[in-house]
Design goal:
It is built from 14 helices and no strands. By secondary structure, the chain is mainly α.
């Protein structure tokens, strides 16, 4: 993740958080998978505890907005930055995803049609059928990237951003929209607009966008604010306290919360905590080694490859044979194998591809900065 003072300094604390979020998502799928292979009557691993995968996804979404605002704040109003931005995002998302998609496509090839293949390959935000279940989040990312690129346009960019946020808030809190517009417009004028947004907006106005929006706000604040260590530490502490108060309402991160209003509150709290963490590291109050950057680098392959890997492992295991220590050993072996696969994909495929694409981007005059981020 790149979000330093000059847009080029890696924040290793957020890199580490990125890996931890990907690991939570991975374990939220691997642990139930292992328990599904338990012998009759065997005790499930960790007492069938659920891992906070949804919290990891929420972190990714906020971080994506944070990265976009802090890295591209100087690109607003430059029309040449828009195609460069879309090129960088496509180059970052697709290569690893396409490679991971080959695994389920091999097993499910007979069910693929040209139309389905196009929907899967493009990650179109107008469709939602997945061969890799975790890829649903990438479709939200694609919707966010499309709109964020438009927000970078000169003259119309800021109005587009304002209308986008307003449409999302109205779609999620329709009563608020009717209350605000009621004194000015009659229902027969308001309803067609609201119905159009709800019918055609799709992922572009979903409540998950609140996480991206608050991340954008936090990224802008990170760029503009220059506090000391104590102030940033206070921001971080405040965010963590608020997070601890909210987490019980989404069962400690294993659900997405009860409502769009809750999602908005959680998004704000995560953004505040992320802002405090990033600011504290920039101020020198937190130092991590290069290992944090390496872990952050494998987070996207870890996120997108763990379910295809489980599909392959399924053919090598016999359900109903594992119990006691054997279940924990199976969990450890599968986790280690997935981590190893993610590292191999990162350092021998994904990063070389990114270097190649960076060189191609330079040749076209495109900016060369690409950030390995799960779904960003």
């Amino acid at each position: 993740m790149s979000a330093g003072q000059d847009g080029k300094t890696k924040l290793l604390s957020l890199e580490l958080g990125r890996f931890m979020a990907a690991a939570m998502v991975m374990l939220s799928h691997v642990a139930p998978y292992v328990n599904g292979h338990a012998a009759p009557g065997a005790r499930p691993v960790f007492g069938n505890m659920l891992f906070p995968g949804p919290l990891g996804v929420q972190y990714f979404f906020v971080l994506s907005g944070f990265v976009m605002a802090s890295t591209h704040h100087a690109d607003f109003g430059k029309i040449s930055s828009v195609p460069k931005f879309w090129w960088r995002r496509a180059c970052r998302i697709y290569p690893a995803y396409w490679l991971a998609l080959c695994i389920p496509a091999y097993y499910l090839f007979g069910a693929m049609t040209p139309r389905l293949t196009l929907q899967l390959v493009t990650l179109s935000p107008w469709h939602d059928l997945e061969y890799i279940p975790a890829a649903w989040t990438l479709r939200y990312e694609m919707a966010f990237y499309i709109m964020f690129g438009l927000c970078m346009l000169p003259y119309v960019g800021r109005p587009v951003l304002a209308l986008w946020v307003a449409a999302t808030v109205w779609h999620c809190f329709w009563r608020l929209g009717f209350w605000l517009l009621g004194p000015v417009l009659s229902p027969r004028h308001i309803l067609p607009v609201y119905n159009f947004i709800g019918t055609h907006g799709g992922l572009f106005v979903a409540f998950a966008l609140f996480y991206f929006f608050t991340g954008l706000a936090a990224g802008c604040a990170y760029v503009k604010c220059r506090f000391g260590r104590k102030a940033w530490g206070g921001v971080l502490a405040g965010g963590l306290v608020l997070l601890a108060l909210l987490l019980p309402h989404e069962q400690w991160g294993v659900t997405y919360g009860p409502s769009p209003a809750f999602a908005l509150r959680m998004a704000c709290v995560l953004a505040v905590a992320m802002l405090g963490l990033a600011g504290l590291e920039r101020a020198g109050g937190l130092r991590l080694g290069r290992w944090a950057g390496w872990l952050g680098a494998i987070s996207y392959p870890l996120y997108i490859f763990h379910e295809p890997a489980l599909l392959v492992i399924t053919n090598a295991l016999h359900p109903g044979r594992y119990q006691g220590l054997g279940l924990y050993l199976l969990l450890a072996a599968i986790t280690a194998a997935i981590l190893a696969l993610a590292a191999l994909v990162t350092f021998f495929y994904d990063q070389p591809i990114q270097r190649l694409l960076r060189r191609a981007g330079r040749g076209k005059g495109a900016a060369a900065r690409l950030n390995p981020l799960p779904g960003a």
